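Severity: low
Component: inverse-folding endpoint
Summary: output formatting inconsistent between runs
Steps to reproduce: submit the following structure tokens with default settings.
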């Protein structure tokens, strides 16, 4: 064995990678062209990383300062070679980047596939692109030879995509002077990727706006011919850019393969100058609900990529993808300096305003696209109602809500316009799912009066409603909290008399209160019920029912306030119970406790003591049967 062969190390892929590769190799996804976008995008990233490192270490550029990406076609050997003169990878970086799933998007992708248990993997590949490993959709063997900028040694990574890969030292003569050369040994059905015409078309379609020039070498030894000039799209005039150009660029910058639902491109002039190009994706990015809630907007200085961690937008706009390029920062700005720079604060403000006004315009001019945007990102935008004090009114006005009688989300201005005489608040009901909310007894009195109630099902809803300012002078009010104050508003079919509280019912309420004692904070006759006999609400002050449950679930409050049991004085069962003989004490006690458990069940909870509940129910059943005999 030669020395070189002995130093070949064999590694097994991380389990997730192996699974992903299996999927790639067996992919039935028809648009295999995406692999080229992924490799070119990595090559461009590598050139941008080098440019950034070279700001403080210019010697890294040596005598070859201009970035480039080269595609060599080798029909005879059925190979496609993608080469860049970017930052390159050390041995450890090769193992880390190509042997494990490093990027969170790919990990999320795997989780989805597992959750879906299925072949839709192929479809997901199409939607999101999964980076380097997509090479195995077209190649049965991949060689990566890379030399990190500034290093004498080069490394060779090789794999057939079947569970393992090798890493060995590369012959310096066979390695690029700097950067990475990826050789794809094309599968039989992928030989078309050695055709000049095919490759050129794909590059122009998909990657024409990558900010690094791309050339094609038609066969080994031929002269390179440039097919994309590396002009940054965002520096062009809007009038020179087509919708397709924007979409291609979006796909590259966002790593998403859908169509953006909104594109915002502008140049800010005046005290601070910068250009921004931002997109709202047409579908939810994988990392939307990552706990770090990080944005992904990129910061460039004079067309040099600096960082994607500058947080150029507030967290509630983290779904926006794109970049800001400014000439007003020094190129060698440190990432720490960026955070404190007043320019950045100004960019953040300007960009946030611009994105929000563009969304507002979209709502007016393209309601369907806006509806799509809201469906995907409304639950994120609503975080801003409690996080962005300056803009909370603007965000409320932008928000759309389903209501108890309308399944199409509508805005608050519409809601306010439809308010009934005597109605002073915007009513809402929070919970986990729409169907359960629709069946809530607390809604009945509102429905009977034609009063709209917002149905809020996002977890974030329970929080913003507690801090939201009034909207057009109307406060928000939970219908599961405090008194309903509906008595003053006329019902649609005015049989108001039936809900009058008779002396017998008043006496029954007093009895119920005495019986339930500490289990509730109050028992009272209700004007919010029309069909159900009972319901639970929260006391006037403090969290409403849903928030209370959420806080309790998270262990955030102990000994939560006891609920109020409301009784429908117009309900036949209540009337009958109120009329039952007071001596029948045991029966009435059973009935009251059953009513409380019934209210709990209607709230989506369980009876507090299931055994006692079952016994009570049996006793009451038994008695009803006896009476019937
Ligand atoms: P992503 O580009 O989203 O990080 P990829 O799967 O496309 O994910 O690539 C994984 C990693 O491999 C990259 O983050 C990078 O560190 C490394 N890499 C891939 N291609 C190159 C390249 N041409 N030059 C330098 N590093 C590369
Ligand atoms: Mg990539």
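Observed output (run 2 of 3):
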């Amino acid at each position: 064995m030669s020395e070189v062969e002995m130093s070949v190390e064999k590694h097994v892929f991380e389990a997730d990678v192996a699974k992903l590769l299996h999927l790639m190799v067996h992919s039935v996804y028809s648009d295999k062209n995406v692999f080229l976008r992924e490799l070119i995008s990595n090559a461009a990233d590598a050139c941008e990383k080098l440019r950034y490192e070279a700001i403080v270490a210019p010697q890294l550029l040596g005598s070859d300062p201009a970035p480039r990406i080269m595609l060599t076609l080798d029909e005879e050997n059925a190979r496609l070679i993608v080469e860049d003169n970017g930052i390159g990878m050390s041995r450890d970086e090769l193992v880390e980047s190509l042997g494990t799933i490093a990027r969170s998007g790919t990990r999320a992708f795997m989780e989805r596939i597992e959750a879906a248990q299925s072949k839709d993997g192929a479809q997901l590949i199409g939607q999101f692109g999964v980076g380097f490993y997509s090479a195995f959709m077209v190649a049965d063997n991949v060689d990566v030879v890379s030399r990190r900028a500034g290093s004498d040694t080069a490394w060779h990574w090789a794999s057939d995509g079947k569970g393992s890969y090798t890493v060995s030292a590369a012959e310096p003569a066979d390695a690029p002077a700097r950067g990475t050369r990826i050789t794809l040994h094309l599968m039989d059905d992928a030989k078309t990727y050695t055709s000049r015409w095919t490759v050129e078309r794909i590059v122009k379609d998909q990657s024409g706006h990558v900010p690094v020039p791309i050339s094609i070498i038609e066969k080994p030894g031929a002269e390179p011919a440039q097919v994309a000039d590396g002009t940054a799209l965002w520096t062009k005039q809007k009038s020179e850019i087509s919708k397709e150009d924007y979409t291609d660029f979006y796909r590259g910058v966002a790593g998403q393969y859908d169509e953006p639902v909104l594109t915002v491109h502008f140049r800010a002039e005046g005290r601070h100058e910068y250009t921004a190009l931002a997109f709202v994706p047409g579908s939810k990015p994988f990392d939307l609900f990552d706990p770090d809630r990080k944005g992904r907007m990129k910061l460039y200085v004079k067309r040099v990529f600096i960082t994607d961690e500058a947080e150029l937008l507030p967290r509630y706009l983290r779904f926006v993808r794109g970049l800001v390029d400014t000439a007003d920062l020094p190129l060698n700005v440190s990432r720490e300096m960026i955070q404190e720079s007043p320019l950045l604060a100004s960019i953040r403000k300007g960009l946030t305003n611009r994105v929000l006004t563009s969304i507002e315009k979209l709502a007016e001019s393209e309601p369907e696209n806006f509806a799509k945007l809201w469906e995907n990102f409304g639950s994120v935008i609503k975080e801003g109602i409690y996080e962005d004090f300056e803009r909370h009114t603007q965000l409320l006005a932008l928000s759309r809500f389903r209501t108890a009688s309308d399944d199409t989300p509508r805005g608050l201005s519409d809601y306010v316009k439809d308010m009934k005489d005597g109605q002073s608040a915007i009513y809402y009901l929070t919970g986990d799912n729409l169907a359960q909310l629709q069946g809530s007894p607390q809604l009945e009195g509102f429905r009977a009066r034609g009063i709209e109630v917002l149905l809020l099902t996002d977890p974030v809803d329970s929080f913003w409603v507690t801090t939201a300012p009034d909207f057009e002078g109307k406060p928000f009010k939970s219908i599961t909290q405090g008194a309903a104050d509906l008595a003053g508003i006329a019902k649609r079919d005015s049989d108001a008399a039936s809900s009058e509280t008779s002396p017998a019912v008043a006496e029954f309420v007093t009895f119920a209160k005495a019986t339930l004692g500490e289990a509730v904070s109050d028992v009272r006759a209700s004007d919010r019920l029309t069909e159900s006999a009972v319901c639970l609400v929260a006391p006037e002050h403090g969290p409403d029912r849903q928030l209370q449950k959420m806080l309790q679930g998270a262990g955030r409050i102990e000994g939560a306030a006891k609920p109020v049991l409301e009784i429908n004085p117009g309900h036949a069962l209540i009337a009958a119970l109120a009329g039952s003989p007071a001596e029948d004490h045991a029966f009435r006690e059973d009935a009251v406790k059953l009513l409380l458990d019934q209210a709990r069940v209607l709230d989506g909870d369980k009876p507090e003591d299931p055994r006692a509940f079952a016994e009570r129910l049996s006793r009451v059943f038994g008695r009803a049967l006896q009476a019937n005999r």
